[in-house]
Design goal:
The protein has helices at residues 4-22, 29-41, 55-66, 82-85, 121-133, 168-171, 185-195, 209-220, 226-238, 248-253, 260-276, 284-295, 303-307, 312-329, and strands spanning 45-48, 70-74, 86-91, 98-103, 110-114, 135-138, 141-144, 150-155, 176-179, 254-256, 300-301. With 330 residues, the protein is an alpha/beta fold. It has 2 domains: 4-82 and 109-194, Rossmann fold (3-Layer(aba) Sandwich), CATH 3.40.50; 222-329, Magnesium chelatase subunit I, C-Terminal domain (Helicase, Ruva Protein, domain 3), CATH 1.10.8.80. A 5-stranded parallel beta sheet has the order 2-5-8-1-9. Strands 3-4 form a two-stranded antiparallel sheet. A hairpin with a 6-residue loop joins strand 3 (86-91) and strand 4.
Length: 330
């Protein structure tokens, strides 16, 4: 359990990070918080939104604020796995030829996988293997990726021609899926005003590599009471149509519910959120707040749901309040 001093310092540092990012990114606080949560929880994040909403700018700004190595991979149908993880090249130093591994752009702390659904499944799997194992294997050598390591993949919900949607098993590897929405009118006004400024707004470095790992360690020490853990498990079980605790909407509209990774993600993301709020214990409200982003890509709707115009958001929008009310009544 973190001490009061460590808790206050951690909360202050995270608020400073959010403030620095806010100098560049206007609004989108849920998106900013979600990416920070995934970074500290040791997971990866999938953003879905139309072009021009600041997804690339967000990760580039986060890299500047945290002084981390950043790389961007533009996914296209002709992108090959070696273009991501690296390849063996011939080294002719000292007049002798030898094979040497040339690291690819995956060897960074923050990796932007832009429009991941435009690459072939073979290339997608190369990235997802690195995400899961935090290693890259070439021949007989295994190369470790340096922590912290975050992949922020983006998907464009329009122009779906010629794309390769991520399989559900691979979607499950992402800790969160966040929907990036259009800015409000006053936010758009601020964006345009900043655009016409002559000089770019400077941002300062708030945390270093070691402090980020320390924050990750502190978040893991956030206390999880048995009734809060039960709530997270109840949420996951409620999405499973064949489970005894499955919600009636799950039986009606869901083909496959969330996996055990969903329950793990609810607790891990909730712990970071509690830390951001300055608390050393996880609450039901924390789990409820992250539940949409954690579960929306982990449920697969059936034909009846699509015919009825249902989406993961509409189904979860009824299941989550129902389980919350049940937990409050206990």
């Amino acid at each position: 359990m973190p001490t009061e001093t460590a808790l206050q310092l951690a909360t202050t540092q995270l608020n400073r990070v959010r403030d620095e990012i806010g100098k560049i990114i206007v609004g989108q606080q849920d998106v900013v918080d979600g990416v920070l949560i995934c970074l500290l929880a040791g997971g990866h994040v999938l953003l879905e939104g139309v072009p021009g909403l600041g997804k690339t700018t967000l990760l580039r700004t986060l890299a500047r604020v945290l002084h981390l190595k950043y790389s961007r991979i533009q996914f296209t149908p002709d992108l090959m796995p070696a273009d991501i993880v690296g390849s063996m090249i011939i080294d002719t130093e000292d007049g002798h030829k030898s094979l040497r591994f040339q690291p690819g752009p995956i060897f960074a702390h923050l990796v932007l996988a832009d429009e991941i659904n435009r690459a072939t499944p073979k290339t997608q799997s190369a990235l997802l293997e690195a995400m899961q194992e935090h290693t890259v294997t070439t021949g007989t050598e295994t190369h470790q990726l340096e922590a912290p390591f975050l992949v922020m993949a983006t998907q464009n919900p329009i122009e779906m021609e010629g794309t390769y949607p991520l399989p559900e098993a691979q979607l499950d590897r992402f800790l969160m899926k966040i929907l990036v929405k259009y800015p409000a009118r006053h936010e758009l006004n601020t964006i345009v005003s900043r655009t016409i400024q002559k000089e770019e707004t400077p941002v300062g470095v708030v945390l270093n590599h070691g402090e980020i790992l320390e924050l990750r360690s502190i978040s893991r020490d956030v206390l999880v009471a048995p009734h809060v853990q039960d709530f997270a498990i109840d949420l996951v079980m409620a999405t499973q149509p064949d489970a005894d605790q499955g919600h009636e909407l799950a039986r009606k509209f869901i083909r496959y519910g969330a996996s055990p990774r969903g329950a793990q993600a609810l607790v891990e993301c909730g712990q970071v959120l509690a830390l951001m709020k300055g608390r050393v214990h996880l609450s039901i409200d924390d789990v409820k707040q992250v539940a949409g982003a954690v579960l929306r890509h982990r449920i697969i709707l059936n034909f009846d749901a699509h015919a009825d115009g249902q989406t993961p958001e509409t189904v979860l929008g009824k299941i989550i309040p129902s389980i919350t009310a049940r937990a409050a009544a206990k």
